[in-house]
Amino acid sequence: MREYSPDLTPQWKRSKPVPEVPADPDLVVEVAGTDFCGAVVACEAGTVTLEDRFGKRRVFPLEPRGFLLDGAVVTLTRPARGPAAPARTASGSIAVPGARARVARAGRIYVEGRHDAELVERVWGDDLRIEGVVVEYLEGVDDLAAVVAEFSPGPDARLGVLVDHLVPGSKESRIAASVTGPDVLVVGHPYVDVWQAVKPSALGIRAWPEVPRGQDWKTGVCRALGWPENTGAAWQHILSRVTSYRDLEPTLLGRVEELIDFVTGSGEA
Questions:
Q1: How confident is the prediction along the chain (269 residues), in pLDDT tens digits per residue?
Q2: How far apart are CA 154 and CA 182, in angstroms?
Q3: Helix or strand or coil: residue 252?
Q4: Which top-rank group of organisms is this from (predicted)?
Q5: Angle (deg, nearest 10), helices 217-225 and 231-240
Q6: 43: closest CA among 63, 19, 28, 25?
Q7: How many CA atoms lie within 13 A of 217 on its CB side?
Q8: pTM higher than 0.70 for the full model?
Q9: Residue 25: closest CA among 65, 84, 96, 97
């Protein structure tokens, strides 16, 4: 017969139980004993995958007392299977099953080039079709004033424009200021090209390379990364790695959402 062995550890030395918390998607926790903090992106048997604010992902074991939630020690558990979460579009919006595309609005969103348009379609395409917003590309902004004049924007036909490299003192900023008005909104991102709006982590690189002035930026990127100097093929590779808004920099996400709200009027009080 097995002898009973009482636990003689003093009460004050015994580990106190800690809360068990389901590792639900987007829950933000810190890994105990490290400085890694991230949101849950996946949870499988025995492990959890976290993504930090730079887009870096790491896998950790679901060990007892292995995480901190709001500074308190917790044990993460695999979420129980419950009702299916609502399906979402690539932009993170709740998908509307069976929704039909709306008749196109008079308003439009213009972007600088084809790559910009393809990236916007990749992430926001479902949302834009439901809202009836058409995206067109300009092939540069040098003639933006003439384009706006020909479009003749008004309260029922607003125009939104997304500009590359919109930084103070730039040519683009001066052009944007000359056309902005009550029914025209010009916003932009600080990147030399929309390629940079894709997070390096989505491509498996540490960072976008620095390209010397005077050198074609896209060609320089291909050279620095050891890719064939075929910028069209390089872009298709980049685009293929974008599956949702998580793969894009917040600087671009906010600007596109701002344009959609402006054109549809959904951002008004």
A1: 445 455 454 554 455 688 999 998 888 899 998 888 888 888 887 889 888 877 788 889 998 999 999 888 999 998 876 445 556 666 565 555 555 555 667 889 999 889 999 999 999 988 888 888 889 988 778 888 999 999 999 999 999 999 888 888 888 889 888 888 999 999 988 888 999 999 999 999 999 999 998 899 999 999 999 999 999 999 999 999 998 888 999 999 999 999 999 999 865 54
A2: 8
A3: helix
A4: Bacteria
A5: 70
A6: 25
A7: 10
A8: no
A9: 84
Whole-number Å distance between alpha carbons of 104 and 131: 8
Local structure of 66: helix, strand or coil: coil
Place of tokens 């709306």: 102
User: Can you tell me the distance from the alpha carbon of 241 to that of 239, in angstroms, rounded to the nearest whole number?
Assistant: 5
Orientation of helix 114-131 relative to helix 231-240, angle to 10°: 40
**d(C-alpha 242, C-alpha 254), whole Å:** 17
The three-class DSSP label of residue 105 is: coil
Residue position matching structure tokens 């917040």 = 250
Instruction: Please name the residue ranges forming H helices in 61-182.
Output: 114-131, 144-151, 171-179
Q: Tell me the C-alpha distance between 164 and 140, whole Å.
A: 9
Token digits of residue 69: 């939630």
Residue 138 contacts residue 172 (beta carbons within 8 Å): no
